[in-house]
Write a structure and sequence with these properties.
There is one protein chain. The protein is an alpha/beta fold and 217 residues long. The chain has one domain: Alanine racemase (TIM Barrel, Alpha-Beta Barrel). Helices cover 44% and strands 16% of the residues. The chain has an eight-stranded parallel β-sheet. Helix 2 links the parallel strand 1 and strand 2. Helix 4 crosses helix 5. The radius of gyration is 17 Å and the shape is globular. 39% of the residues are buried. The structure holds pyridoxal-5'-phosphate. The site of pyridoxal-5'-phosphate has 13 residues, from strand 8 and helix 9. Pyridoxal-5'-phosphate binds next to strand 8 and helix 9.
Amino acid sequence: MTLRDIIDRITKAEAAAGRTPGAVSLIAVSKVQPNARVEAVLQEGQRIFGENKVQEAAGKWPAFREQFSDVELHLIGPLQTNKARQAMELADYIHTLDRPKLAQTLARLAQEIGRCPDLFIQVNTGEEDQKAGIMPRDADAFIAECQALDLPVRGLMCIPPVDEEASLHFALLAKIAKRNGLAGLSMGMSSDFEKAIALGATHVRVGSAIFGDRVAV
Ligand SMILES: *Cc1c(COP(=O)(O)O)cnc(C)c1O
């Protein structure tokens, strides 16, 4: 697959679902990809990228931002509170607000820094022990808590369990977002982004389908 192929598939999925053209943002997930591949995708015109580690993003994106204007960087991996400041300084969006302590840290830093990236709250829709995210039953209260802290919560994010039908998880995430008045839905990856678009995704996170398999650098 190439970037063009993925963009075509997104356009078709939007149309099939009766969504507004351009309603879905493609986040090209560049984690662990060699810089040359990332640069090739930038040269093709892609400007929205996702990374899952703060350290890796810090090593890569300041230089690309100097070379290419209008880059929008999304952090999509688990965030430790001791990396929160660096994450906030680097990223335009953080998709993994998943616990009260992190919410409090982001709120305090937002005051200090004077700005805050747009935020998605990660929901552990599969209630998996090994996965981050707020439990579905705790989501409404946590969303309210984040809003009370004046955090710019734009929507919800999930990573469905590998062995379950992703659509059920996308539908659950959409339902929680809707009843809380949140417009953003970060859901869908290489193997299931069309299903996510059918269920209302506003941001799909696609890595290997654009870049090929992740190789060690
Ligand atoms: C790596 C990653 C993706 C992209 O996965 P692909 O299957 O390569 O498309 C999406 N979301 C998160 C949170 C990731 O860590």
